[in-house]
Amino acid sequence: MLGVIDLPTYLAGLVLIVLLPGPNSLYVLSVAARRGVRAGYTAAAGVWCGDTVLMTLSAAGVASLLQANAVLFGIVKYAGAGYLTWLAVGMLRAAWGMWRSRKDTAAEEAAEGGSYERPYRRALVISLFNPKAILFFVAFFVQFVDPGYAYPALSFVVLGAFAQLASFLYLTALIFSGTRLADAFRRRKRLSAGATSAAGALFLGFAVKLSLASA
Question: CB neighbours (10 Å) of residue 159?
Fold first, then answer.
C-alpha cells in the first residue's frame, strides 16, 4: 500500500513504542493534571507539531547529517538535555513550594507557574531538541518502506500519519487521566507535591539519558 510493506508489524511496533514513557507524554500528563483538558491538548499539539517537523526532517535526510556530524549532534543533544534539566528544576521548585504552602491554594498555583506557562511552546521545544528522535524515525520507518517504490516520500507520509494517529489516541487517554488525577491532587496536597517531585526527577533522568546518547 503506497510503498508500505508489512503494515501489521509496523502497527504492532508503533503501539509498543508509543506506550513507552517519555518526556513528551509525561509533560502532557503533567499539564492536564494541573491545568485541565484544554491545556493538555495545547501541550499535545506542541508534541504533534514537533513530531511532524522531525518526521519531515528525517525524510529530507537530516538524520544522515546528524549521524555524520558529531559536533552538530552534540549541540542539539546538549541543548535538549539542558532544556529538560531546566524543566525538571522548575518542577522540583514547584513541588517544594507545595510542601511549604500546603494550605495556601494561591501560593500553590503560583508555584506551579500559573498562567505564565506556555504548554504548546514547551512541548514543541521538548520534541524538537531530541536528535535521537530524528534518527529513530529513519531507523524505524525505513524498515517498512519498499525500496522499489517510486515515491518513498509518500510512504513516509503514510507511516507518519499512522504514528500521529497513535500519538493522538495515547495522549488523549493521558489528558483525561490527568484531569482525574487533578481532582485527587486538589484534595491531597501532599500527593500533588509528591507527584510533581517524581515528575521533576524523571525529567532529570531524561536529561541525563539524552546527554549520554550517541549518534
Answer: 26
Instruction: Retrieve residue 206's grid coordinates.
Output: 531524561
Q: What is the DSSP letter of 151?
A: -
Backbone angles phi, psi at 145, to 5 degrees: -110, 125
pLDDT (tens digit per residue) in 106-137: 444 444 444 467 899 999 988 888 766 776 67
Give residue-wise pLDDT tens across range 149-197.
777 778 888 888 999 999 999 999 989 888 776 665 555 666 566 666 7
Give the integer Cα–Cα distance in Å for 69 and 152.
25
Give Cβ neighbours of residue 159 (< 8 Å, ≥ 6 apart). 4, 10, 141, 144, 145
φ, ψ for residue 147, nearest 5 deg: -65, -20
| Per-residue pLDDT, 168 | 94
Helical pair 37-60 and 23-35, crossing angle rounded to 10 deg: 160
Cell of 86: 531546566
Q: What DSSP state is assigned to residue 115? A: G
CB atoms within 10 A of CB 106: 9
pTM for the model stands at: 0.67
Q: How many helices (H) and strands (E) does the chain have?
A: 10, 0
